[in-house]
Amino acid sequence: MIATRPSYWDEACSQLMRSDRVMRKLIPQHSQTSLQSRGDAFQTLARSVVGQQISVKAAQSVWDRLLGVVGEVTPASLLGQEAQALRQAGLSQRKCEYLQDLAAKFRDGLVHPGQWSDMADEAIIAELVAIRGIGRWTAEMFLIFHLMRPDVLPVDDLGLQRGISERYFSGESVSRSDLREVASAWAPWRSVGTWYIWRSLDPVAVEY
């Protein structure tokens, strides 16, 4: 599936560089890349579950091994495997259960991806966190990487916390209120600001 770039990206970058000194330096360093969505809701959520509490590199390694086990990652392919087979990809027992529960919800029509484009961010988060194994962080990753919502601030994301600490506070620990204060200058493009903070830590763009 061909990745797509947000239509608002150039406008957001221009405004961020005008409003924030860090972004003014950071954005030109990564001008050849941008947030992209591959347009597959199930795979985006599955990748987010796989990536919970592990590094981007480790998550990609597990995902690649999962592809080796099931072929294409779909509800049918995951539900067609025993949990033990999925564990061969390096998934924990709990993540295997989460992925298969997610697959069952999609198979049974208990989530409504056709409606998400018209729903507010918090309404989508509420629907997603009702799925076992999907918390607010995973739902926020979905908003950013699949729906490409422009103004999401995932305050519990460790990369965002570390990046803001390094870029704005000389490496000192930061609170959620610190993150929100820094990111207030990014609104209404906080997803974009977050994406460039991630790039300041790892120039290889994560994809879901």
UniProtKB/TrEMBL annotation:
Keywords: DNA damage, DNA repair. GO terms for molecular function: alkylated DNA binding; DNA-3-methyladenine glycosylase activity; DNA-7-methylguanine glycosylase activity. GO terms for biological process: base-excision repair, AP site formation; DNA alkylation repair. It catalyses: Hydrolysis of alkylated DNA, releasing 3-methyladenine, 3-methylguanine, 7-methylguanine and 7-methyladenine. Transmembrane segments: none annotated. Residues 50-202 form the HhH-GPD domain. It comes from the Bacteria. Pfam families: HhH-GPD. SMART domains: ENDO3c (SM00478). InterPro entries: Alkylbase_DNA_Glycosylase/TA, DNA_glycosylase, HhH-GPD_domain. Its EC number is 3.2.2.21. It is an enzyme of class 3 (hydrolase). One of its GO terms (cellular component) is protein-DNA complex. Belongs to the alkylbase DNA glycosidase AlkA family. This is DNA-3-methyladenine glycosylase II. It comes from Thiomonas delicata.
